[in-house]
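Good morning C.,

I know you're traveling, so I'll keep this short. The sequence:
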Amino acid sequence: MMNIGITCYPTYGGSGIVATELGKSLAERGHHVHFISYALPMRLTGLGASGNMDYIDNIFYHEVEMSSYPLFEFPMYELALTSKMVEVAKYEKLDLIHAHYAIPHATSALLAKQVLGNDLKIVTTLHGTDITLVGLEPSFEPLMRYSIEASNVVTSVSEYLKNETVGNYGVEKDIVVIPNFIDTEVFRPMESKNLRRLLAPNGERILVHVSNFRAVKRVTDAIRAFKIILDSGIKAKFLLIGDGPDRSESESLARELGIWNHTRFLGKQAELAALLSASDVFLIPSGNESFGLSALEAMACGVPVISSDVGGLPEVNVDGETGYIVPMGDVAELAAKTMALLKDEDLRKRLGNNAHDHAVKHFTKEKLVPLYEQAYEQALSS
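The tokens, ready to paste straight into the viewer:
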């Protein structure tokens, strides 16, 4: 069994969710897992008074403590993270650190390794934002390339992201593709009649979107498509789950379009499976997605997905089988495909069943967590 450090952003985005679920699965398989972050990861709940997991006693959380000094204009998170990594690696005798994001997490891990002066292994997982946004800033390119090349093992969550990394940075490092995964004991079709009655008391159809409400998610496209759907005469409700910088704009648009009473902004929800199971169609019109974890979670709950045609989404959602893929930014087509499912119950059920079967066949933790263990073994032997 291994002592594994995991560093991730503890927020609502897919990278933090995957890192947390991976750590929990690794702990269930007997490894000791140490989360190192500035806050408790969202899905790492149930910590008792001792600071250990009530239900998984070999998971530990180490908070990166931030200090502010008048001399420094900006908080120095990367250096504080490095110091905490050094402390945890030294006293907990870590075998490796699994950094989720090359910048800043792998960069801090590599610096911690130099400070320790030992052969601490670094495994880096690329999730997307670090590659497609942060790393493309010219000032970051050399650091991004170094963080990837100097890691013992590098993984990415999709073939799309692997190709983007090689194309953008010219790295020669072998990148192992390990898709994101779901826990099918959590994300599964659930009985939802009572919840549907609460959400749609007049028997309306229910659409759902889950994201961190950043501009790249194009939530307003989904809202404009929903307006077209309502104008067609279909009675429906739209659940928007999550929070982020574009939530206020999205709420304002719903009011402006006169559909506010048909939308429900639910904020961050820890118990997603029930809400997904109560829904008829999942919308993800993103401008870019390295994978699309929220779509996969909906599929596992038996909900067909309508996604844009960008990034890694076509590796998750199979057009015409598990849902539909539409051109990014084509609001009319997004609405048309949604209406096709809402008007044809047999089609919707068939695609929903296909979506569930596809998720269970290809994206379970039982299938994919062992691939991370293989990556760790490869790092330890390098």
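Safe travels,
E.
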